[in-house]
Automatic annotation (TrEMBL):
One of its GO terms (cellular component) is outer membrane. It comes from the Bacteria. Pfam families: Rick_17kDa_Anti. Keywords: Signal. The lineage of its organism: Bacteria, Pseudomonadati, Pseudomonadota, Betaproteobacteria, Burkholderiales. InterPro entries: Gly_zipper_2TM_dom. Residues 1-24 form the signal peptide. This is Glycine zipper 2TM domain-containing protein. PROSITE patterns: PROKAR_LIPOPROTEIN (PS51257).
Length: 73
């Protein structure tokens, strides 16, 4: 079972990485938000054993944190 979870996490990270290649026109803050949301979703899903609520919660928290990194005034 642990191998399946590792495969899912790896596939999710690869999907996020490939998806971000199309973000050339985005501002740095938008990119940080997207990266934060993707990473938060993966971490939230892993920490809660794949719970949809944990995944969505992790994405929300990660997106907010990513949005606030290097925020310009």
């Amino acid at each position: 079972m642990k191998t399946i979870k590792q495969l899912i996490v790896t596939a999710s990270l690869a999907t996020v990485a490939l998806g971000l290649t199309g973000c050339a026109g985005m501002s740095q803050q938008d990119k940080n938000t997207a990266i934060g949301a993707g990473a938060g979703a993966v971490v939230g899903g892993v920490l809660t054993g794949g719970s949809p609520v944990g995944t969505v919660g992790g994405a929300a928290v990660g997106g907010v944190i990513g949005n606030q990194v290097n925020k310009t005034n």
